[in-house]
Each structure stands twice: as C-alpha cells, then as structure tokens.
Amino acid sequence: MKNYDHKQIEKKWQKQWAESGIYKIKENSKKPKSYVLDMFPYPSGEGLHVGHPKGFIATDIYSRMKTMQGHSVLHPMGWDAFGLPAENYAIKNKVHPKIAVKKNIKRYKDQLEKIGFNYDWSREIDTTDPEYYKWTQWIFLQMFKAGLAYESHEPINWCPSCQTGLANEDLEDGKCERCSSEIELKPMRQWVLKITDYADRLLADLEELDWPTHIKESQKNWIGKSEGALIEFKLKTKEDFADKLEVFTTRPDTIFGVTFMAISVSLAKSWLENGWSVDNKINDKVKKYITKTTKDQAKKSFKDDPDKTGINTGLKAVNPINDEEIPIWITNYVLNDVGTGAIMAVPAHDERDFLFAKKYDLPIKEVIESSDENLPFLEKGKLINSEDFNNLSSEEASKKIVKKIKGKFTHTYKLKDWVFSRQRYWGEPIPLIHCGDCGVVPVPESDLPVKLPQVKSYAPTGTGESPLADIKTWVNTTCPECGGKAKRETNTMPQWAGSSWYYLRYMDPDNNEALVDPKKEKYWAPVDVYVGGTEHATRHLIYARFWHKFLYDIKVVSTPEPFARIGKSLGLILGADGRKMSKRWGNVVNPDEVVGLYGADTLRVYEMFMGPFDQEISWSTESMIGSRRFLEKVWRLQDKVRSEVDLNKKPTNEDLEILLNQTIKKVEEDIESFSFNTAVSSLMILVNSLEKEEAISTDYYFKLLKILAPFSPHITEELWHKLKPDNKSVHLEKWPTFDDQKLTSQTIEIVVQVNGKFKYKFKASRGLSESKLKDLATDNEKIKDILTNSPPKKVIIVPDRLINFVI
Ligand code: ANZ
Ligand code: ZN
C-alpha cells in the first residue's frame, strides 16, 4: 500500500471531475430537486482565509448527500463584486475596479477549486457583468414603473470620508460601517425604494419560514411594527406657525398622566420656517437650543441613547381628554423621523419621559395601578386617577379614550424606505433619463444594459455627485420620449442591489430574453437551504425578500418567499488567538497553505469537526492534525478489505453490523440538521472499530466510503476506484440505506434479583414474554435453591432488563 499522498490524489480528481463534468446539473422532472445556496462572497483583494470556506464546505456536504439521495441538486457559486469594498480596494491600489475585480475573482476561484467543491461552474455569475446587471436594471425599471421608486431631497446620511450617501443600514453606532467616520446629515437628491409598502407582508410571511428564531427576531425588530393611535392636541392659542400637535402613542390609556408634550428639533425647525420668530413668541434661548441640538444631532444623530436635554418653549397644549393645559418642550430624545415627531409624555409610565421629568423637575402623575412602588411602571393594568375611565383595563380604556377624543388607531414601522442611490462609480447605473420637457423617463428595456462608461478618474468627486457626472459624452443623451436633449441619471445603485436577486439567475444564467425562464424558475424555486453569516440577518435578507415579493407580484417568480430554510447560522472561525481573523492581528490562516500541507479533505473534515456549526471557534492547527490522522486510518483500512466470500467462513460480528447501521443513520440525520461535528465523530467511532478487525468486508468498506464521501470527496473517490474499478464516481452512487432492524442489538442481558439484590445475569434475545423470562431465570441452581426454600410472594419483571423475586 502506498502512503496517503493527498497532493497527487486531490489534483488528479479535481481535474477529472472538471473534465467529465460530473457536477453539471439540469432540471430533471423525474427527480426531486434541492437548491442549496451559499451567500456569495465579494472577492476582496485579500483572498480567502480559512474561515471563509466553512459555510461553503457545509453546503457542499449537504448537496453531495442530496445528490446521492437521488435529488437534482443546484449548488452554484458566484461573485458579489460591485460596491464600496471593491471600489476602495481599487482606489487604494491604483487599478481600475474592473481589472481589480477580475483579478480577485480569479484568485478566489483558484482557492475554492483547491478545496474540491461540487459547483457547477457553468452557472457562475458576476454581478458586475453587464449581461447580469442588465437584469438588475430591469428590475429597477419595473419598480420605477410600479411607482415604487421615487426621488427625495431629504437629508441623507453622508460619509465625509467615503464621500457618499449611506442607508441607515450602512451605519454602525452612527458611524460609517466602512471607515468609522462620523456621519453627517446632508440634503441630497436620492432615489428611494418604497420597501415600507411591503412591511406588513415582510413581517407576516416570516411565519412560514424555517429559519433560526434569532434571525426571524432580527427581521421583526428591523421592521419594528408598533401599534398605537394618532391623537391631536390643540395648542392653547392658535398660532400662525401651528395650531395643533399630533402625537403617535402606543399607550392612549395613559392620557390622564400626560404632564408635558415633547417635540423633536426638526418639528421645532419647521415651526421656525412657518413664522415662529422672536417677535412671535419664541425666546432667544429656545432658538439657540434648536441650533445647537441640530448640530449635535447631525453628528451623532444615530446614537441610540443620548443624554436627554430639552427646553420649555413657553407654549401650551390642551389635553383633549380633560382640557388640562400642558407645557410644550423641545427635546433631543424625540426622534425626527419616527411617528409624528411629537409625543405626549407620561413620566409615570415611560422610562425616557420619567428620566426627563426628573431632570427638569416636571410633575409625575400615576394613572395605572401598580403593584410596586418604583416608577416608572411600564406594564399595562387597571386605570386610576382617570375620571370616568377608572378601573377599566388598559385595553378597554384605550379603545374608549381614542373613540371619545376622535383619535385613530394605526401602526408605524421602524423600517424606513430604502435610500437606493450612491454617488459612486462602481455600481449599476440607474437606468433613467432626465428630460427638461418630459421629466424622469425610463430607459427603454431594449436599451438595457446601460453600461458603466470607461473613466479615467473613478474616485469620488467630493461634490456629492457621482464621477459619472463628469463624463459628458455618457451623460448627454436624447430623451426616449420626445427625442430632445436629455441627461442620464448619474447615481449608481448600492452594493445590495445585485445580491437582492442573484439566486434567481443561477437557475438560468445565460438567458438573454428573460431574467429567468418561468419553467426553470418553477422547477428550482424556492432555495431549499440557504447558508451564510449572521451579519446578513437583517439587510440582505430583508432586501432580497422585498425584491422577491415584488417579482412575485409582477409574476416573474412563483413563490412568495425566496429562501425556505436557513439551516443554522454560520459561526465564525476565529484566529488561534481567539480574535477575528484579520491582517491587523496577524492571525490569518491561508487555506492554500493548509491544503498544501494537509490536504483539502483534512481541511474539510476539520472545519466540520471543530465544533457545532453555529458556534464561534478558534482555529487550531494541532487539532486539525487529528482530522488528518482519521483520514490516514481510513486509507490504511483498504488493506483489511476482503471479499464477502473469504469472510463468510467467519461468524458475522453483530456489534459491528449494528454500529455501521447506526452510523449511516446518524450521519444522514446530522447532515440534514447541520450537526456536522457529531456526524464526523460518529464516522470516527466507526473507523476506530473497523480498525480493530482483522478483516472487513467490501460491503462495509464501501458503505463507509459512501457516507464519508461528502466530507472528503477526494480520498474516498481514490479508494473507491482502487477497490471497485468500474469507472463510476463514488459521488454519483446511491446513499446507503440502514436497516431499521439492525440499529440495536437483539441480544440483551437480564439481571436477576432476589429482594432487590443482584444474584446473577444471563443473555437472552430481545422481546421475550414474561413467562419465558421467568422460566429462564429459574433455570439456575442458586435461584432454584432459594425459591424452593421460600416460594416468591411476588415477581417483578421489567421487560428486556430485570426480574426480581420478592420472598
Ligand atoms: C405615550 C406613552 C405612554 C408612550 C407610556 C409609551 C409609554 P415604540 O413601541 O418603540 O414604537 N414615541 C413616539 N414617537 C416618538 C419619537 N418620534 N421619538 C421618541 N419617542 C417616540 O414606541 C412608541 C412610543 O414611543 C410612543 O408611545 C411614544 O411614547 C414614543 F406609558 O406615548 B408613548
Ligand atoms: Zn423628453
């Protein structure tokens, strides 16, 4: 037997698989289908580290098992290559993003190919390929035509360093996710997608998804539906700049506890614009507060919990329930873009109002009976100090109060419409044309794709305009409607665009006529198992679900949801030092090196074995050697394999038979539930037992190779061909079935007791009747003696376990 030479074996089979095309996949109506998908990577300049392929290995194993189980399996791979990271890399390294991306993709692909994945590369997609983004633009056009895309001049998050507008979703603690700069608010013309039109469906349809609870929770919180009522408070005196305040409240039942009103700075500013002036009631200090707070908020606008500040406007509102006059304050804790930007403050029952009232010495009035003395009391309950409404429950009181004061029940969402334009070069051009006469006109579908023009300088202009605005030959065009002079839209789409529908394109990547052929879509949709990092629990999954639902509405897709199941979320592989793998910490492990030294099969087994799939675990090269030893044992076992004929002389080993059946069952179930680590450990137990045998049957060994094949595709293929030279791949074999009858031993031990004390035990076959057991137990000299002297008063029998004579 030769030594296990992983280098030679892995190279050989990777070449052979590619040449014979065993991973090419077609729709096959006679077979069930499985669509197994990884969140596709963006090809960064750094290349892959060993953490990246963990999820890819998992889906590879899963999809290989499904293939062996007779499914038609779609398991594709591609590149999410537009966006800031690719562009910033290109700027830093002074290469055109197109060239940088090409190079990075090649590097990534080389690295992935060394790990032996079963991707059908004929379906590879690249979001920056005009033949791909033609359809990204096409979807945008359909949304525009459906009224789901609109222009807005509202202030947007502006990163002064990346020189671009960002969505709320691109911020981390109010800072730019990419470069950590403080974000400013800057008014700018933007394209915005009305994702809020889909908020209810995005929420309701979560129910039907087989996703980890925590991801569903993240989605729920992101959408942030809150049910409440809109209530009007009149101002005590009618002013030119305002005569009423409308508030959104989730607790109309607490209206008797309102001791002040609080408005946001931007509402105060709109009053200023409408004529609230120093001659007209505003005090200078209030004006200064507004200016200062506006500045603070522009810097830290998204800090969750700023120190609460405020100032009394001197104006008064009237509580509609009892005509009480209440002061109106401007505060920094009433958010500008939530609800109506004004609240009725109830310090006794709301945390923020309570802290504010304490700080500024405002009255606190309890209106809900509370069992403990500490305020605020946040729960619902029975009303007190509320006149006619005393003793009612919160729910009942809410209904009656809202009715009486003519408020209206409604709901709000935290989810905001999606700011969909970026003032950058490296993105899909937005396919619109601005015409002086016709307004905004969509590019005709037949003119798609609108290709990104070649430019010399693609760095941000700093004016807030996209670098595309400088390319006059590209910008100046004719209006598709009137033929007059017109200009192209110069904003590009955000990084999230291409990834919001890519899973559909894998189904039909070369189609020039349609985004996807409906027949193919019907066959493959939805994605059966989707795997990726928790960093995508909100944004990517919300955006993709939104686009999908829109495509469902316009009948491009046949299912209301894109991803039926998310197996388990992907736990990161950390560096050996327990920190996130990063150049900065010098703890990056390159898979190429590991594959070179120990083999792709070892890397694959180790990454699955190192711990539960959804947990963060530190890399350890020493532990990986354990996985290598395991494969070496499998390799050496080939010497013990004998044909059944030779083995027939020996009695069958029942224990081994049972272990094999148990292992098949366990591996199958564990792969299905993404419990890969326990699948590997049961394979290890089986191999250790086989190693103790003098000889093992080909049948056993073949079964072992088949259930190990998804984990270690190269070594198993090599051994398979050595022992069964019929030129068929182990990866196209049928998944072995286990025998239900052989999962537990048929021979068991029965304990015999007298008065609860152990006397002896004997072997019997499973499932014997009570009388038979009793006969066997008394067929023993010792027991016979005892029982003839003192006949049993009672016999207790636990089937298959124990028999106890009470004397
Ligand atoms: C009176 C009240 C009494 C409230 C009470 C709560 C408890 P969620 O559930 O998070 O949506 N609110 C409304 N608009 C606001 C804004 N622009 N900025 C800050 N807070 C705002 O919260 C809804 C509640 O948050 C509303 O109900 C309102 O305070 C406050 F015992 O009204 B409540
Ligand atoms: Zn026109």
Tags for this model:
alpha+beta; binds ligand ANZ; 35% helix; Isoleucyl-tRNA Synthetase, Domain 1; 25 helices; 17% strand; four-stranded antiparallel sheet; Isoleucyl-tRNA Synthetase, domain 2; 807 residues; binds zinc ion; seven-stranded mixed sheet
Please characterize this protein's 3D structure:
The chain has 807 residues and is an alpha+beta fold. Among the domains are: 142-194 and 419-488, no CATH class; 226-412, Isoleucyl-tRNA Synthetase, domain 2; 615-742, Isoleucyl-tRNA Synthetase, Domain 1 (Orthogonal Bundle), CATH 1.10.730; 747-806, Ubiquitin-like (UB roll), CATH 3.10.20. 35% of the residues lie in helices and 17% in strands. The chain has 25 helices and 32 strands. Strands 12, 13, 14, 15, 16, 17 and 18 form a 7-stranded mixed sheet that branches. Strands 21-20-23-22 form a 4-stranded antiparallel sheet. A 4-stranded mixed sheet has the order 30-29-32-31, with helices on one face. α1 (6-20) packs across α23 (713-723) and α17 crosses α18 (621-637). The longest helix is centred in the last third of the chain and has 19 residues, at 654-672. The chain is globular. The model has no long low-confidence stretch (mean pLDDT 92). Bound molecules: ligand ANZ and zinc ion. The site of ligand ANZ has 18 residues, from β12, β13 and β17. Zinc ion binds at residues 435, 437-438, 479, 481-482, 484, 486.
